[in-house]
Structure formats: structure tokens, C-alpha cells
Amino acid sequence: xxxxxxxxxxxxxxxxxxxxxxxxxxxxxxxxxxxxxxxxxxxxxxxxxxxxxxxxxxxxxxxxxxxxxxxxxxxxxxxxxxxxxxxxxxxxxxxxxxxxxxxxxxxxxxxxxxxxxxxxxxxxxxxxxxxxxxxxxxxxxxxxxxxxxxxxxxxxxxxxxxxxxxxxxxxxxxxxxxxxxxxxxxxxx
Length: 189
Fold this sequence. Notes:
alpha/beta, four-stranded parallel sheet
């Protein structure tokens, strides 16, 4: 099992295309993906606000599938650290607390302003935008990343996507560097 550990913030677990890409990448064993029940609640509440047509039951099913597919993903026993932490957005302290508890290397988040380097430096934790995170994985291990991306793309059935359509979806997820790297490997996707 990989030792490089990434806490996935709620901002990368919703929207679904980004979450699903990260889950497929987590199965490559290039990193350990971790999250908490509180992080689950955040992404599910955000999704329900944006999509009232979805049911809580359906999202709970997604949550269960996520937890079942990624070994040892749930972080517990971090709550006692929250009160002693300071971030620009105090509601994000639970994410940092979980990262500290498991000795995470990185918090993958679309909200970098919420996790400034000055607040994380003392813990040896970096915050990375998902584009930077996935691009680094592609640079370090293009083969496993291509397999994960291809598996993810081929699993899309409603509707299925060509490589070009899939890359356009990733571009809409604010992953331009990742898309640029994957375009160079398009024949493997």
C-alpha cells in the first residue's frame, strides 16, 4: 500500500467527474486517499443544495460505495485536534485535523485559499489543487494513471465518452494541466 497520503477535501468529492477520477487514481496505489464522515457530509450537503432532485438515500449509496472501494479511507479519532487549529475558514479545521491525525502529505482541495501554506507548514502538509495533484501523478507514473483514466472513461455509459469528450469533461473540472498531459498520452486512454 502506498505511503503518500492525500486527504480529499469535499471540494474535490463533488463534482462527480472529479471525484470519480480521484477514486480511480486511488486504486492505482500511487497514493492513499483518505476522508472523513464530516467531509462526506460537506460534499453531500453541497450537492443536495445544488440538486434538490437527488435523494439523500442515493448519495448515501454513493458514500458507501466510495468507502467500500478505497481501502482504509475513513479517518476517525481526529476530532480532539480541531479546537486547537486555526485556518482562514474555521469550518475547514476538521480537514486539517484529519490530515494531521493520519500524517497526510497533502490536502487535495479546490479551495487553496482555505489552506494557506503558512497554516500548514508546521504540520508538514501541503495543499494542492486537484489539477496539480493529478498532473504530478501523471508525470510520476504515466502508465498507471493512463490505465486509471482509461478504466474511468470506459466505465462511463450514460452517456459513453470518446477520449476527446472525456478530456473536455476534465477541462470543465478545472484540470487544464492534467488535460494537457493526458493529450500527450491520448492513444493510451
